[in-house]
Design a protein that fits this description.
CATH architecture of the largest domain: 2-Layer Sandwich
Largest sheet: 5 strands, antiparallel
Number of helices: 5
Helix content: 25-40%
Shape: globular
Number of domains: 2
Distance between the termini: 48 Å
Length: 187
């Protein structure tokens, strides 16, 4: 299983020009690829790093099939484009050589790493208002992508055909009766 420690994090942060001392770090999200394949070298880990300057950061570490350094860099560049068009995104840190992301070898795993500012707040439920705001935001992002001809070729986070962090078929099955009633009401 992929592990990371303060020394690894310090090395990464120095490479991104960040010299503040690490107070602590916590995992925000980890995909456990080893559950299905104990020999897997795939990684998706997001950690929050608290620094002595009071400005927490997020470090994303990835090694997944079909995820390339070019894709991660394009995603970061698109986030910067959105920010320049007044869509709030976390500030993305660049390495001392000007890269948004780069490869690191950590404890026998090769991973792509990005560093960004930590943004507070978390959605615990999605209500009608949040859904409308999300739809509006996605429309704005789509329009920016079309206007600038900037398209990141990668799968979307929300894939209704497989389990992911947003929902699962099992969840739908458990709530089938309620969903069927709602569907009839909404039609």
């Amino acid at each position: 299983m992929f592990t990371i420690n303060k020394d690894d994090i310090s090395f990464i942060l120095e490479d991104f020009g960040i010299t503040s001392k690490i107070i602590s770090f916590t995992e925000l999200e980890r995909y456990d690829y080893e559950k299905d394949n104990p020999d897997s070298k795939e990684v998706r880990l997001i950690i929050k790093v608290d620094l002595n300057n009071g400005q927490p950061l997020v470090i994303r570490l990835k090694k997944e099939e079909d995820v390339t350094l070019d894709i991660i860099n394009a995603q970061s560049q698109f986030a910067n484009l959105l920010a320049s068009r007044y869509i709030e995104t976390p500030a993305i840190y660049l390495t001392t050589t000007g890269q948004c992301a780069r490869w690191y070898s950590i404890n026998g795993y090769d991973v792509i790493v990005t560093v960004e500012a930590f943004v507070t707040g978390e959605l615990h439920t999605v209500d009608e208002g949040i859904a409308k705001k999300t739809g509006s935001l996605l429309a704005r992002m789509h329009n920016i992508a079309e206007q600038t001809d900037f398209h990141v070729q990668n799968d979307v986070l929300f894939d209704p055909l497989r389990r992911n962090e947003l929902f699962s078929f099992q969840d739908f099955e458990l709530n089938k009766d309620v969903l069927v009633r709602l569907d009839k009401i909404l039609l």
